[in-house]
Amino acid sequence: MLSCAGNATCKLIMVIPLISVSSAIYTMVALAVDRYRTVVLQKTLSRRNALYGVVAIWLWSFIVSAPQIYEYNIYLDIDDDNHTYKSCGSEGIVENFEAYYASAVVVIAYIIPFVALLVCYSRIVFYVWTHGRRLRRNASIMPSVSSTLAVPQQNNAERRDKMLSMRMIKIIKMLMSVTGVFLVLWTPYFVIFGINVRI
Known about the structure:
The chain is mainly alpha-helical. Helices cover 77% and strands 7% of the residues.
């Protein structure tokens, strides 16, 4: 007889990792959207909206992972020596459910978030780059007060240009590295996730 407690444990063990992965990915996307709102739109997030965002991330992560509650059960299996043992896995589910579900998870929890990160960070980079160029152009157009002050003002403008360029490059590097790290760290997980479903 298969116990309900054992079945619940099986389902819990299979659901928790995907909830954790999804919540981590959606948190990265939420941070990217917040950075975009702060830098480009110059809007800040209230505490209440931040709390709603956290609740929405975890709720959506659970919704994405919930089909695994249906998918995984404890079932009786027989080994090579004809011994019966309990196993936790996909047994007795609709044909092709695993393949369809895995495809949906890859799209919802990996491809769409990656595109969202790419869009947000690309727009931030474009904004920082154009805004920095505009600031440098405005600084170089400012008229000098007198010919004796022209050289110090020119030196100050050059220093300001260098600082702006260095800051822009740091921001762009940081945003590119966040996107690259996302790609490098999560791609193997979702590749293995897809391969395991096909086996």
